[in-house]
Amino acid sequence: MIQITKDTRLVILTGAGISAESGLRTFRDSGGLWEDQRVEDVATPEGFARDPKLVWRFYKTRYKAAIDAQPNSGHAALVILEKFLGKNFCLITQNVDGLHTKAGSTGVLEMHGTLYECYCTKCLAMYRTAEIDLDPDLPVCSKCGSMLRPYIVWFGEIPYHLPEIEGKLRNCDLLMIIGTSGNVYPAAGFVMTAKYFGASTMAVNLDTVANSDYIDEFHQGKAGDILPKLVEQWC
Q1: For tag attachment on the chain, is the N or C end more exposed, with fewer CB atoms within 10 Å?
Q2: Looking at the DSSP assignment, which residues form a beta bridge with residue 204?
Q3: Full DSSP string of 37-61
């Protein structure tokens, strides 16, 4: 079994599975639907251009669900691990629900953005979602009056923090992926990058991950059950 010490440079990548235990639905089902909507309609720039009201309605619902959701024992275990490792700890998430931050994690790299921010499609002014008027079908920028959009990385767009993430992957001792299927790139490729540069790899997931050939140690089950036990052994 892989062990961690205070000197272990650990990178963690989390996906929708860890949030599902807090009552938030996972990314999409086998029918290609995302919370009963076609992914192409609510998670692409083309979908937003075609029907921005639908997209905003979808993300307002997700934002409200994220506000109500509470971190689970998996999130809490990662906070303990961060305190143990200090500067040797890096947490990357594909999730946009803010549950890691709500649990107490700091410096989370939200590679797909966050429901808690939005920005102007014209002047690019940034806003906290809590500070804007969500009552209109299409929220607008208070500076220039143009339409706002969620601060979310959609299909066809480049994720945030990639240079920093690559640097972390090149220099880590262990990459641990949690609650992610290994199907969505570029995140699915992080395991190969870490392995290429000599890191060990571990996965915690309900089902076997798509990139399992690159995983050294696999723990099948819920993150909320498995992570507290692992962290108790390590810390």
Answers
A1: N
A2: 178, 219
A3: EEHHHHSSHHHHHH-HHHHHHHHHH
Reported residue count of the chain is 235
Query: Three-state SS for 82?
Result: helix
In this structure, are residues 144 and 122 in contact, taking their beta carbons and an 8 Å threshold? yes
Cβ neighbours, 10 Å, residue 52: 17
| Kind plus residue range of the DSSP H or E element containing 33 | strand 33-34
Q: Count of alpha carbons within 13 Å of 17, Cβ hemisphere only?
A: 23
pTM check: above 0.85: yes
CA–CA distance, 95 with 28 (Å, rounded to integer):
13
Per-residue model confidence as pLDDT tens digits over 75-128: 999 999 999 999 999 999 999 999 999 999 999 999 999 999 999 999 999 999
User: Among 100, 112, 161, 219, which one carries the catalytic annotation?
Assistant: 112
Query: Is 112 a residue of the active site?
Result: yes
Taken in order of first residue, the domains within the chain and their CATH numbers are 1-24+71-112+159-235 (3.40.50.1220), 27-68+114-152 (3.30.1600.10)
* Spatial CA neighbour of 167 closest among 197, 201, 192: 197
DSSP string, 111-132: TTEEEEEEEETTT--EEEGGGS
Which runs of E-coded beta strand occur in 121-191?
126-128, 148-152, 174-178
